[in-house]
């Protein structure tokens, strides 16, 4: 079915005319297939960024530059404006070989002027259409016939600046058409363009808060980088901050913003106007929280000092933000725009700090994936995050009004993981095929939001339901390159030595036979407390075989994740936000059972969804056997999810069972496994809950009784 995607960018100086233009195309959008951009693109020139008012690219009309005029002044030299628009866009497209034939541009560019407030056109010229009403506009659009449909996708990719990313990793070395390297090259070439939700997320800007929600692999980080580069080009005086939890994202953001800025303004971004900084920060490395402490002369807490504020591991940053927020009575404007990636990792207090340092115009963009929270935190609504004004009204309410930029954008499609990998990750993350679910969305409609289709039953509390991903939300090409049993494997070993031998041998095969680069491979250890000590044996064996490896954040800078000359080993916190073609997850048995199970299952979900092609889930012992049994059930059900949707009471029980625990509570449970007397006393006195006890211990107690 045809539908024109209308992307409402910023054209503040021509609000009424652009609104009328959008209204016209809304009325005919089912007759065209393509995109109408308002306030986009900005083209890099030797004089800086050049703004085009509107651009139409459809399979029916081809490429049309639209000069928009506001007001009734019909003496404007629209002919010169159309010529300049044409020259600037043609010079951009000519830089791309796949859009040329010999020495000429293969794509025809049409130009026109839209001026609905003019009463007449002075000196009309058929070569320079100047349209003053919608009847004339309709006739003009119908008169266009594109002969360039074969160039449609390539043209769209260039306009969206995505070609810059695709050029980033060359695979000219590939010799075999059937190797993993060849398959990977085809995969990367297939992800040529942004989809309609992604385009909206990049260009549509609101004067206030904007939320972007999407699965792992839906392109959030690239979208945010594009958005920053676009808004920096349009508003060079704005002071912009980009912040995140995973330190290695700093290098990614800087690289992407630089690439996109060259597309938009033909030069390096002005880094005096863009701060790419970690959320926490240290005296040696800027961060939002650290800078706030300096700006307001309040006490700064590093991670070690923050431990004194809370007993719960993982809540340290939440506490220091809460403390800072309570100590600052009046905030001052610091930024014109703040962009937050990985917002699921942050408390509402950090988000409120960012909100408060934006002055009167609260341009805050926050993006997140609910299931990538490694602290079992769920994102609250904007009303709960930002609170109420003095009249008790919510400071932030996100509404998507017709013909207005979207305030709340959902990215339905996943362009990284195949449906098989993603569905398995969700099944294990929620515990769909365990005896008891581990966790569940409070809002059942979120399953639709993340791209699942109802196959059977009802998506209601207490009802049995079957859900499945479709080709619409998980493109088929992500699965078709390999057999299912190659896309995803669960490997059970007798001991760690067997695991080491297998993974090292497979990595050597990936490099020597499969034509994968070293930076195509990532090895993830799920337990963040053991990574440094456990990966040493793997790395030594690789080194003995002539393969270099790095431990992310330890052997390299904390701000760098990839090194093309090494295999990357990493803990889960540094893996988040990154991706690789082949992902090996070691010691996966850690995620099968025990205290804080929801957090462990989220870790497994996050680890699996780092892969853009193949996953190997590895481990040893009975817990790994149990994990593989869960996977077999997913596979047997054709990667659909069948379960009874838990009631509110059942979900509350899950939250108690799998809640975050303090170190003291964990130690008490572990100690009491060896001391039944203390265990019974603590249970009786309510110092620990029966839900904290491992299932195998409960079974032992039941047998004894």
Fold blueprint:
Elements: E1 4-8, H1 15-27, E2 34-38, E3 42-45, E4 48-51, E5 54-58, E6 62-68, H2 78-93, E7 100-101, E8 104-105, E9 109-114, E10 130-131, H3 134-143, H4 152-159, H5 163-166, H6 180-190, H7 196-203, E11 209-214, H8 220-234, E12 240-244, H9 249-265, E13 274-278, H10 288-296, H11 303-306, H12 316-327, E14 337-340, H13 348-356, E15 364-368, H14 382-386, E16 408-411, H15 419-430, H16 446-449, E17 452-457, E18 464-469, H17 477-480, H18 484-487, E19 488-493, H19 496-512, E20 521-525, H20 531-534, H21 536-544, E21 549-551, E22 567-571, H22 572-575, E23 580-585, H23 597-608, E24 611-620, H24 622-636, E25 641-644, H25 648-657, H26 663-672, H27 676-685, H28 695-704
Parallel strand pairs: 1-2, 6-9, 9-10, 11-15, 11-16, 12-13, 12-14, 14-15, 19-24, 20-22, 20-23, 21-22, 23-24
Antiparallel strand pairs: 2-5, 3-4, 5-6, 7-8, 17-18, 18-25
Keywords:
Rossmann fold; 17% strand; single chain; 705 residues; 6-stranded mixed beta sheet; alpha/beta
Report on the structure:
The protein is an alpha/beta fold. The protein has 4 domains: 4-159, no CATH class; 196-411, Rossmann fold (3-Layer(aba) Sandwich), CATH 3.40.50; 419-649, P-loop containing nucleotide triphosphate hydrolases (Rossmann fold, 3-Layer(aba) Sandwich); 662-704, no CATH class. Strand 17 and strand 18 form a beta hairpin. Helix 7 (196-203) runs parallel beside helix 8, helix 8 packs across helix 9 and helix 15 (419-430) packs antiparallel against helix 23 (597-608). The chain is globular, with a radius of gyration of 27 Å.
């Amino acid at each position: 079915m045809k539908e024109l995607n209308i992307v409402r960018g910023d054209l503040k100086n021509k609000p009424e005319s652009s609104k009328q233009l959008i209204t016209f195309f809304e009325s005919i959008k089912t007759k065209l297939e393509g995109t109408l951009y308002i306030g986009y693109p900005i083209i890099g020139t030797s004089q800086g960024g050049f703004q085009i008012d509107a651009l139409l690219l459809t399979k029916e009309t081809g490429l049309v530059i639209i000069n928009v005029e506001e007001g009734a002044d019909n003496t404007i030299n629209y002919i010169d404006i159309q010529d300049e628009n044409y020259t600037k866009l043609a010079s951009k497209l000519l830089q791309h070989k796949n859009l040329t034939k010999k020495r000429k541009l293969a794509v025809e560019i049409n130009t026109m002027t839209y001026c609905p407030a003019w009463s007449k056109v002075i000196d009309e010229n058929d070569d320079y259409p100047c349209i003053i009403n919608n009847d004339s506009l309709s006739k003009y659009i119908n008169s266009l016939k594109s002969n360039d449909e074969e160039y449609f996708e390539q043209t769209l990719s260039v306009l969206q600046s995505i070609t810059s990313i695709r050029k980033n990793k060359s695979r000219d070395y590939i010799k075999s058409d059937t190797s993993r390297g060849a398959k990977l090259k085809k995969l990367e070439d297939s992800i040529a363009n942004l989809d309609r939700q992604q385009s909206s997320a990049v260009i549509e800007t609101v004067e206030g808060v904007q939320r972007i929600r999407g699965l792992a692999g839906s392109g959030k980080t690239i979208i945010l980088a594009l958005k920053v580069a676009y808004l920096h080009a349009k508003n060079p005086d704005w002071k912009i901050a980009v912040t995140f939890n995973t330190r290695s994202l700093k290098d990614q953001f800087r690289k992407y913003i630089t690439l996109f800025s060259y597309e938009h303004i033909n030069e390096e971004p002005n880094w005096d106007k863009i701060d790419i900084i970690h959320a926490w920060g240290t005296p040696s490395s800027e961060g939002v929280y650290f800078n706030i402490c300096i700006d307001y002369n309040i006490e700064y807490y590093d991670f070690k000092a923050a431990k004194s504020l809370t007993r719960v591991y993982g809540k340290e940053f939440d506490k220091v933000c809460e403390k800072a927020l309570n100590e600052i009575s009046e905030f001052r404007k610091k930024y014109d725009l703040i962009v937050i990636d990985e917002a699921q990792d942050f408390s509402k207090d950090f988000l409120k700090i960012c909100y408060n340092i934006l002055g009167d115009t609260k341009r805050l963009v926050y993006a997140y994936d609910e299931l990538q929270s490694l602290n079992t935190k769920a994102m609250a609504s904007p009303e709960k995050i930002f609170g109420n004004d003095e009249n008790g009204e919510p400071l932030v309410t996100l509404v998507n009004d017709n013909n207005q930029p979207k305030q709340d954008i959902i990215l339905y499609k996943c362009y990284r993981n195949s449906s098989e990998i993603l569905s398995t990750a969700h099944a294990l993350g929620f515990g769909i095929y365990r005896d008891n679910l581990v966790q569940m969305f409070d809002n059942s409609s979120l399953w639709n939001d993340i791209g699942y289709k109802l196959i059977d039953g009802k998506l209601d509390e207490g009802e049995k339901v079957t859900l499945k991903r479709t080709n619409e939300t998980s493109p088929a090409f992500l699965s078709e390159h390999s057999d299912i049993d190659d896309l995803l494997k669960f490997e059970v070993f007798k001991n760690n030595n067997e695991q080491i031998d297998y993974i090292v041998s497979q990595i050597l095969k990936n490099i020597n036979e499969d034509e994968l680069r070293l930076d195509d491979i990532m090895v993830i250890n799920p337990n963040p407390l053991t990574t440094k000590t456990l990966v040493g044996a793997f790395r030594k064996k690789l080194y003995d075989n002539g393969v270099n490896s790095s431990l992310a954040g330890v052997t390299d800078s904390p701000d760098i994740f990839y090194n093309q000359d090494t295999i990357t080993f990493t803990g889960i916190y540094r893996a988040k936000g990154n991706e690789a073609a082949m992902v090996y997850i070691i010691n996966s048995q850690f995620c099968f059972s025990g205290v804080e199970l929801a957090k462990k299952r989220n870790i497994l979900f996050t680890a699996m969804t780092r892969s853009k092609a193949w996953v190997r889930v590895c481990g040893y012992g009975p817990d790994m056997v149990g994990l593989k049994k869960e996977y077999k059930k997913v596979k047997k059900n054709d990667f659909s999810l069948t379960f009874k949707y838990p009631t509110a009471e059942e979900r509350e029980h899950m939250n108690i069972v799998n809640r975050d625990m303090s170190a003291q509570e964990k130690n008490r449970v572990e100690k009491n496994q060896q001391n039944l007397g203390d265990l019974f006393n603590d249970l009786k006195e309510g110092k620990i809950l029966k839900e904290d006890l491992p299932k195998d211990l409960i079974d032992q107690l039941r047998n004894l009784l």
